[in-house]
Each structure stands twice: as C-alpha cells, then as structure tokens.
Amino acid sequence: MGTVQGGQPAKLDIEELLATRLLVQGNSGSGKSHLLRRLLEQSAEWVQQVIIDPEGDFVTLADKYGHVVIDADRTEAELAGIADRIRRHRVSCVLTLESLEIEQQMRAAAAFLNGMFDADREFWFPVLVVVDEAQMFAPSVGGDVTEDTRRMSLGAMTNLMCRGRKRGLAGVIATQRLAKLAKNVAAEASNFLMGRTFLDIDMARAADLLGMDRRQAEMFRDLKRGNFVALGPALSRRPLPIIIGDVETSARSSSPKLMPLPNAPEDVEDLVFTPDPEEFTRPVAQRRAAPAPRPTTDILAELSKAAPAASEDSPAVPTRTAAPALSEEEREERLVGVLDEILADPQSAFRTDSVLYQEFLVRARMRRVGGPPMAMSEFRRRVAVSRADVDEETAASASWATALSLSSGVSDDLQGVFLLMARAAIRAEPCPSDLRLAKAYGTHSARRARRLLGYFEEQGLIVVHTDFAGKRIVAFPELEAETLPGDPNAADDEGQDLRSAAE
Predict the structure, then answer these.
(1) End of a domain among 219, 244, 269?
(2) In a domain, 186, yes or no
(3) Which of the chain's termini has less CB crowding within 10 Å, N or C?
(4) Is 0.90 topped by the overall pTM?
(5) Can you give the residue range of the structural domain that contains 331?
C-alpha cells in the first residue's frame, strides 16, 4: 500500500481482507480516493473487482486493467441481470453513477449489489466490492430521499458487509463522514484506514474504532494528505501510520490548482458589457430537470396491450405472439403461483417490498399473465396474507374477515406482523416469538419486534400480558380471541405450533 516510518513497505494481506472487510475514512482532500486506487491497482491481477463509483472517477481503470464500465442509467432489472453475469464470468467492472440523481444512484447501486448477492452458489467466487462515498448508500439517518429508497439501499449495504463474506463478497467502503455512516454497516469492518478529519464526532468515532484513547483523537487533524492510520488483521495488529504510494492511473477529475490570471486588457469593461453579435443568434441553453421515470405499472400496462394490426398503407411489422386470453380464475391462479414462488425463497423475508415487487412483475410477464399489473399496495397486502400461512378453513371464517378489516388500519409494512398474530389467536396457537415476528417484518432485530407489539397495543388493537411462567399472550378484543402462551425468546418456534397441537 505504501511505506511506514523508516521506509519499510506497508503490506496488505488480500486473502485476509476478503474475510474481514475494510473501512476507509477521510475528509475531502485527504487522499481517500488515491488510497482506493492504489488498492485496486495493486490487487487487480489477483482478485475480481467491482467498484460502485458515484462520480465516475474510477472509469480510467478500464484502459490499463480491463475493467468493464457499466453506465447505471438502466432499469433495476437490467442492473440485477448484469450483476449476475458479472459474477458468472468473473469480470471486473466499474458501475458509474454520475449521470443519475442521488435517489436514482441509491436504487441503482442497491439493485446491482442485490444482483451480486443473489447469484447462484456455484458462482460465489471472491470479489472485492469497493463502494466510494458509502455514507450516501448507507446513511445513518433519513435524508431527502424516500424511506423506501433508503431502506432498499441500506439493506443492500447491510447484506454486503454483514452476510457477503460467505458469498465471496468482500466489502471495502470509503466515507468522508463516519458520523453519517450507519453504525451496523461500519461495525462489520475489521480493518481500518483512517485519514485526516476535523470534526470532533468523527475523530471520536475513528479513535473508538482503532481502540485509541479519546485524547489521541487529535492526531487525525494533523495527518497530511495521503497519510493514514492502519489497523486490522489484514494490515497491522496495532495502529500503524502509513504513507500511501503512487498510482499508475489518474482520475478524470483532480484537485484544483492555482493558476495566475491573464493580463487584463485596457478595454476590459467594453469586453464584459458589450454583447457579441453572435450571442443573439446563438440558441440559449436551458437547464431542464431530468424527467421523472415513468412508473413501472404504466409501462407494463402499455406492453400488455395488443399491437395494432397492419394496414394496407403501412407494411406489416413482425410482432410477438399475443398472450392467450385468460379467464379471471386462470389469471388469479397464475398470480398466486408466481407469488408462492417468490415467497418460497427463505431470503425473501429480508428483501424490501420494492425488490420483491419488481421480481413479481418480471415473473408474471414470463408466465404470460396479461392485463393491468397488480398495484404495489395490493401486492403488499397479498404478501402479508400469504406470510400469515392461513389454511382454507380459517380463511373462510368470519374472524379472519374481521382480522383483515382490522389490518387495513395499519401501514402496509406492519400488516404481515399483525395478521401473523391474529392467525395464532384465531387458531388458538402459541404466541409467535420475537424472532418470528421480526422475520415477518423483514428484520433480524428482536427488539424492533417488541416495539411493534407496543405500537399495536397503543393503537388499541391488541392487549399483551404474560402468564405465571413468563410466557406471552396476545389478546384481540375485536376478535374475542387470544393466543396460547408462547416463549418470546424462543430461537425457532416454527415447529412449536405442531408440537403443541400434538400435545
């Protein structure tokens, strides 16, 4: 990577890095991008590389090292498909996001990372995944983007850093502000390269990550450009100052340099205030905002329409064979089949609704399901009902109809949790554990599941109490039913219902 004090080489163990991940921090101008470029150049011949590049600075790697440059101005399905083929053929690439706005950048990066994460097991080859400006894709708090976009991007980054190792994905994330980076993403890195920073909160977090005393945090203000403090099993067992070495390629953009002004002519005022005659004939360039992307539902609705027949004046054009007309029963059967296929994947519980919805639309078209596509709100409701795993007898009962009516009063993302508990109460089954409720919500956090119970209770939908053994019971006043006692801390209660029924 460079040299340490005394001129000795500063080594980085790539194999160890693949198993332990890396976090790079440094303010603008600290040499953070230079460090990433040095790492990529030194390891290009040893490991496949994927760079998520918000500013298009790393596209110059293509000329010397053969990286494929991918413009992210594509649909999410296209990006996911490209990411899958990148893993299959072990091609190094740069995903450049510079042509997109911030929210589009987050969605494009998330779709690409999810496509790599979902690759088949036989293609889990080691990949170095470098994400520059990681605080954009894993923000610690919500910003100007929609909550759905934030959750989609944060989920993809969490998968990369928390669960990517077994799939061969080694995350290298770089950020200007540690305080703006989600803690659960930063905490998964075991190697650190900390550069110059000035804000107290960032210095304190950097010192904590390096195991240094808070009083030593002041040293980060004094670091020169290109100087970093290294720590981690792939770098050094103790904090080690290093100087990053030279690189062979350069970014398209560079730091501004001082340039003397030209000698001012005597008629400078005439040059400024007198218009050039050509200015009146030159078209005025108007800055227009990029048009908002068309909703997927509108596009699919147009595609589902039959193509117009050729007239005598216009030549016939080859068209695809129209999808056979389906009855309402056949269409509903195919939609249910597609939904069951998607939810059969164990990892579907932890994917965002938007990702599942895109996959649902694609698979529905592959099954030749015509007509207007299902709305997002209806899709979320069907997913919630499907995950509740209700049998035909329960689904036909008046109590379940009441439960569905009550669930419409909560937000879409909470309906799955509510219906899961309602089913347990109607069928007199043990109360689901915290982990089961968390899975229904699409998270691994049992604490968040307990907060959801408190929210439902505040809304007057349920009453939570415990028996003498400390097991939890959830009652539904509107249903006049309650669950059997269940252990909230059970590790896996999916078989608990069957054991209780057998008893």
Answers:
(1) 244
(2) yes
(3) C
(4) no
(5) 326-374
